[in-house]
Amino acid sequence: MADKLSNERLKKIEFEDRPIDVAYGLASADGMWLQESNDPQKALIFPEQVDVSCDKSTKTCRELTVTLGPAGGMVSIMSPEEKDWPIISWDTHGLLASYGPDNSKSAAASEKCHSHVLTMTFISGAVSTSDIPTHEKGCEEFTETDSYRLVRGNYYVDTSPNNDTDKPTAKK
């Protein structure tokens, strides 16, 4: 659950991975980014619902991310964000895309200090991303790779009176 959001009504439902259908040079997957590490310090600050769509002809994957955040005891939908991933390779097994680091003056420190890699394995349906430190001058605080996997499913807000739609119902 979204520990840092701390709203008991925000819940998630997860589904099994499934193969990624690759038709006409298009591939897509959606779900939630969850950290690979068991270290709570590596968890995303706010939960993210994502859709990743890849097009072999344009050699681009586009990630649409909707971040959920707190707003005075409520769950708020933050600004959606789009990110393009240039595809480095694509074969019958999957694809690899990468971008970064961003050396522009307006880029955040984490974007200047990381390369980002996206992998998609078609048969298993596995999708993951890694933020890899560049070890450049000024990036000393970024020393570890952070990896996230796409878990099929979505977040929802439990509006039941007892906040218990995810609990088994008792048989009478």
What would you note in describing this structure?
By secondary structure, the chain is mainly β. It has one domain (10-157): Porin, CATH 2.40.160. The chain has one helix at 109-112, and strands at 10-14, 26-35, 48-55, 60-71, 74-77, 81-90, 94-99, 114-121, 127-133, 146-151, 153-157. It has an eight-stranded antiparallel beta barrel with strand order 2-3-4-6-7-8-9-10. A two-stranded antiparallel ribbon has the order 1-11. The mean pLDDT is 87.
How would you summarize what this structure contains?
The chain has about 170 residues and is mostly beta strands. It has one helix at about 110, and strands spanning about 10-15, 25-35, 50-55, 60-70, 75, 80-90, 95-100, 115-120, 125-135, 145-150, 155. It has 1 helix and 11 strands.
Overall structural class, as computed from helix and strand content, comes to mainly beta
Helix content: under 10%
Main sheet specs: 8 strands, antiparallel, barrel
Task: Tell me how many strands there are.
Answer: 11
Strand order of the largest sheet: 2-3-4-6-7-8-9-10
Question: Termini separation (Å)?
Answer: 30 Å
Q: Return the CATH class.
A: Mainly Beta
Point out poorly predicted stretches: none
Q: Give the helix tally.
A: 1
CATH topology: Porin
Order of helices and strands: EEEEEEEHEEEE
